[in-house]
Amino acid sequence: MWYEVKVKYSRIDEDDRVKTFNQPYLFDAMSFTEAEARATEGMKQYISTEFKITNIKVANLAEICPNEAGDRWFKCKLSCITLDEEKGSERKANSYILVQANSVDDAYDVLAKSLSDTISNFEIPSVVESPVLDVFPYEETDRR
After folding, report:
1. Which pLDDT value is given to residue 119?
2. How far apart are CA 116 and CA 103, in angstroms?
3. Each residue's pLDDT tens digit, 69-113
4. Best CA proximity match to 50, nearest among 25, 21, 28, 27
5. Are 77 and 62 in contact (CB under 8 A)?
6. What is the spatial distance between Cα 71 and Cα 130, in angstroms, rounded to a whole number?
7. What is the pLDDT of residue 144?
8. Is the pLDDT of residue 67 over 70?
9. CA 12 to CA 61: how far, in whole Å?
10. pTM here?
């Protein structure tokens, strides 16, 4: 399960002013407790000053689509179109996928390409840049 963890920290900018950030990161974890522990350990590698975890919530994401060529994360709404056989009508089931890309157009293309062999009837009605700065997937060494 993916958890969005907000981390608050301060940093001195180029004008010697203290600037405070409260930024979201995504962690793959089994529980809120594990997400907090992974975030605490993970942020120690990137933030040399004190930091505080200000919020943890379950991310409304069906999947993560990493792309090494991308430098940002985009939240894409995916509508899968299915046929309701009882009613004889089409039905849309929406889900959200986080895609790593360089632009909105690039994110759309990356997602469409990744789905081309798996889902026949789908639409991508929206692609927006996500505030998530980084994604920390599960690794075998994370759980002992």
Report:
1. 62
2. 20
3. 999 999 999 998 787 778 778 778 899 999 999 999 999 999 999
4. 21
5. no
6. 12
7. 46
8. yes
9. 34
10. 0.83
Q: Count CA within 13 A, CB hemisphere, residue 120.
A: 2
> In whole angstroms, how far apart are CA 144 and each of 40, 138, 139?
16, 12, 10
29-62: pLDDT as tens digits: 999 999 999 999 989 988 888 999 999 999 999 9
List the chain domain ranges: 2-59, 63-129
* Cα 3 from Cα 39, distance rounded (Å): 10
The three state secondary structure string of the chain is: CEEEEEEEEEEECCCCCEEEEEEEEEEECCCHHHHHHHHHHHHHCCCCCCEEEEEEEECCCCEEECCCCCCEEEEEEEEEEEEECCCCEEEEEEEEEEEEECCHHHHHHHHHHHHCCCCCCEEEEEEEECCCCCEECCCHHHCC
- The structure tokens listed for 129 are 């840049």
**Cα dihedral value 29, 61, 70, 48, nearest 10:** -40
State the Rg of the chain over Cα.
Answer: 18
